[in-house]
Amino acid sequence: ICKFFLDAVERSKYGWFWSCPNGSSCIYRHALPPGFVLKKDRKKEEKKDDISLEDLIERERAALGSKLTKVTLETFIAWKKRKLKEKKDAALKEEEKKRNDFKAGKQIGYREIELDALALEAQEVDGTGTVATEDRLKAAEVNHSSINGDVVNP
């Protein structure tokens, strides 16, 4: 068997476009004999014999000890409520810290944004902004032609 072929198969490089470095004049075979086991497959088989997943889970569970809380729907809901409350308290604490830093002059550019007021402002349109006239294109054409010296019939 060609050593380049074996190397290519071991590294998963062998495929449609693979060619032997020896070229077409290679005197060795480019095929695996029946029952041949690759090194990478041998390693996988050895790892399988180590420990099954169920055994691993049971070992890890036994290593945790006996003073554990079983997870039920009630314990999970209580845990989730506690975590949400902690997250809310942390956010309030951070907001208060930002306010205090701003008042003390440590932080520049802090501004409290009220989302409800912002949403109301975004929905109201009063028409006081810049409004283009409808004949703006004609006026621009007249100005352009007068600059170039063209005669335009109004």
From TrEMBL:
It holds the Pfam family DFRP_C. Keywords: Metal-binding, Zinc, Zinc-finger. A zinc finger (C3H1-type) spans 1-33. Residues 1-33 form the C3H1-type domain. The keyword Metal-binding applies. InterPro entries: ZC3H15/TMA46_C (IPR032378), Znf_CCCH (IPR000571). Belongs to the ZC3H15/TMA46 family. This is C3H1-type domain-containing protein. The lineage of its organism: Eukaryota, Metazoa, Ecdysozoa, Arthropoda, Hexapoda.
